[in-house]
Write a structure and sequence with these properties.
6 strands; about 160 residues; alpha+beta; about 20% strand; 6-stranded antiparallel sheet
Length: about 160
């Protein structure tokens, strides 16, 4: 599954998804009405196609991309234990994983401390797991959206 097919899958498999594009990368957020203010636009998954942010994933290889998924703390720690905190001189988290490995679920090289995971070129080994994790991340994003909408509706007049 290439990056475009992954984007298409996420946008069709899950309701309320909006895809924002920048520099060839895709940021997927839950925004069923398409009206989230900029300060609340936080993706539940991203598709990164180049070495724009770091180089440890070697995304400059032909036909290479990295799918990043934001998880709940419970799901992340159930798979990888406590979130890493030690970074190398380039700001990359030290997890013992080869961040350039293909079709391997691993902590995100920069955002694992916030419970993000990633897979470079998801394939036969990881695709079913990726689909399950995407469903969870989408559901978590939808719950956060609903909770925020509820707070906005129930806010007393004059309070912002």
């Amino acid at each position: 599954m290439d990056a475009n097919e992954m984007k298409r899958y996420i946008c069709t498999a899950f309701e309320g998804v909006r895809a924002l594009e920048s520099a060839g990368d895709t940021f997927l957020l839950y925004d069923p009405d398409g009206d989230l203010p900029a300060e609340r636009q936080f993706p539940f998954a991203t598709i990164v196609t180049g070495d724009h942010y770091e180089t440890v994933s070697a995304l400059n290889r032909p036909d290479t991309y990295r799918l990043n998924i934001g998880l709940t703390k419970v799901t992340y720690t159930g798979s990888f234990g406590a979130a890493p905190t030690h970074r190398d001189a380039d700001g990359v988290l030290e997890t013992g994983f080869d961040y350039a490995a293909v079709d391997t679920l691993m902590p995100h090289p920069v955002y694992a401390a916030q419970y993000w995971v990633c897979v470079v070129n998801p394939g036969a080994q990881t695709l079913e797991t990726v689909r399950t994790l995407l469903a969870e991340a989408h559901g978590f994003a939808a719950r956060k959206y609903t909770n925020q909408q509820g707070r906005r509706v129930h806010r007393p007049e004059g309070v912002s």
